[in-house]
Amino acid sequence: MAGQDFSYAFRAPGPGNFFTADFTNCTGPINTPGSFEARGPLTPPPAETGSTIFQLIGSPRNYVVKRAVRLSSGKVLKDTPGFDHNAVDVATCLTEGGDVRTWGILTPRGGH
Fold it and tell me: Looking at the chain, which runs of residues are DSSP E strands?
């Protein structure tokens, strides 16, 4: 991700302020890609709540990030209230050079 602090994605960036992020070491339900590049955020969420949606490049899917933690400091960048109590198939990926772990849901575009 071109010199951008990933926590930027979890602040309301305003219209047109998108960037590209690489998600790697992904695991999750069947058809979870091992890695992908995505453009985001597609929605300006509240700082720590709500969903942050990334559009997979070259795929008709979105990655809807519900939780993100900076591994080097333990700082929670995003934590959608109640997400840990939902029975959903979660994908988890690393980004920002492996320093940020994300948890989210892969959805078809337009769904979340």
Answer: 19-27, 36-40, 52-56, 61-70, 76-79, 91-95, 100-108
